[in-house]
Amino acid sequence: MSKSLPLVFDAPRRAMPPRHFADLDDDARAAAVAELGLPAFRGKQLANQYFNRLIADPAEMTDLPAGVRDQLGAALFPPLLEPLREIECDAGETRKVLWRAVDATTFESVLMRYPDRNTVCISSQAGCGMACPFCATGQGGLKRNLSTAEILEQVRAAGAELRHRDARLSNIVFMGMGEPLANYSRVLAAVRRIIAAPPGGFGISARSVTVSTVGLAPAIRKLADERLNVTLALSLHAPDDELRDTLVPVNNRWKVSEVLDAARYYADVTGRRVSIEYALIRDVNDQPWRADLLGKRLHGALGALAHVNLIPLNPTPGSEWDASPKPVEREFVRRVRERGVSCTVRDTRGREIAAACGQLAAQG
Fold first, then answer.
1. Which has the closest alpha carbon to 46: 22, 66, 19, 67?
2. Which of 35, 153, 269, 334 would bridge 224 by S-S if both were Cys, CB 3.0 to 4.6 A apart?
3. What are the Cα distances from residue 32, in Å, to 35, 50, 73?
4. CB 317 within 8 A of CB 363
5. Which residues are catalytic?
6. What is the pTM of this model?
7. Is there a contact between 59 and 69 (Cβ–Cβ < 8 Å)?
8. Closest CA relative to residue 200, chosen from 18, 34, 24
9. Pick the CATH number of 5-11+80-353 from 3.20.20.70, 1.10.10.60, 3.10.20.30, 3.40.50.2000
10. What is its EC number (predicted)?
11. What is the pLDDT of residue 67?
12. How does strand 106-113 pair with strand 94-101?
């Protein structure tokens, strides 16, 4: 393993944003309200406003006495995010938002509307330290971790946007900027609030929440032991260590076999099928023998508890790589399925506005 590799797991030491109501668990909310000299039930009122009514400005919380709204705003609802730019495509069904935090850090989230569901793809870090060469986010480097509240504000804003359209947010995917398991404690806290029933959380089903990772094996096992039963998405991208060492540099620390062992542990503990993400790159990882090896390794490690999501590579600035031709893609799918592993091609959204997988770069 390269001596410099561990550095990519640690965000630069920057001051985190001010404490926000969404950062707090139930006990901390009660303590914060008590510190302000307010009765305990105000904490539940605030939670109902934020997680159920999707309101983050105390000035709009009409069930609170007017005299305490400014006090609560200053103490528990400081401004966190400002939308710098919003871009739409797919006839308005896909919307990318560029957010700016209080320290001028920028990151992105993407809201996607489908006939049967509404999904928001959220960021867990500003930038990413995993350095995957085919991903624009990874090539930009890591700026800092996001706070729990900054993560949850992306969810709340998406839910509020949908509510204006008489729709409801149904799915959350941690597939935006960053490696979620490299910001473990804050992502875990955010997931707990996402799946908690109102008024303590957004009330999204755990089965409708997906946490993606490039393969931080110990953190995968740790997440399994939390028994939250969210969906795990493993970004594999190559079935052999020789290629994956290059495509996913974290493989220099945790090899394919170790990552698949961790994925199997997750599946065994949670009973949930693991999604294997595989960006198909022309003449790089799309060879028939790699499809055979992928199917063989997944069948041996996970059996029916694996599903391969093939992702046609999305173009990124300056990259010489592109997506595999459709006949190659179809043959890859056929060979993986022939090994007894479920495999489908992902319906890519937002490519033309750089909102698709691997394209988020938060450029102002």
1. 22
2. 269
3. 5, 15, 12
4. no
5. 108, 357
6. 0.92
7. yes
8. 24
9. 3.20.20.70
10. 2.1.1.192
11. 87
12. antiparallel
Confidence of residue 315 (pLDDT cuts 50, 70, 90): confident
Could you tell me whether strands 118-121 and 106-113 are parallel, antiparallel, or unpaired per DSSP bridges?
antiparallel
Break the chain into its structural domains and give their ranges.
5-11+80-353, 21-76
- Tell me the two tokens of residue 47: 């939670």
* Sign of the dihedral defined by the CA atoms of residues 189, 253, 319, 324, in that order: negative
Q: What type of residue sits at position 25?
A: D
Dihedral sign from CA coordinates of 97, 194, 10, 6: negative
What are the pLDDT digits (tens) for 9-63?
A: 455 566 789 999 999 999 999 999 999 999 999 999 999 999 999 999 999 999 9
Largest CA distance in the chain: 69
Q: What is the 3-state secondary structure (H, E, C) of the chain?
A: CCCCHHHHHCCCCCCCCCCCHHHCCHHHHHHHHHHCCCCCHHHHHHHHHHHHCCCCCHHHCCCCCHHHHHHHHHHHCCCCEEEEEEEEEHHHCEEEEEEEECCCCEEEEEEEECCCCEEEECCCEEECCCCCCCCHHHHHCEEEECCHHHHHHHHHHHHHHHHHCCCCCCEEEECCCCCHHHHHHHHHHHHHHHHCCCCCCCCCCHHHEEEEECCCHHHHHHHHHHCCCCEEEEECCCCCHHHHHHHCHHHHCCCHHHHHHHHHHHHHHHCCCEEEEEEEECCCCCCHHHHHHHHHHHHHHCHHHEEEEEEECCCCCCCCCCECCHHHHHHHHHHHHHCCCEEEECCCCCHHHCCCCCCCCCCC
Fold of 21-76: DNA polymerase; domain 1 (1.10.150)
The two three-digit tokens of residue 127, written as one number? 């930038």
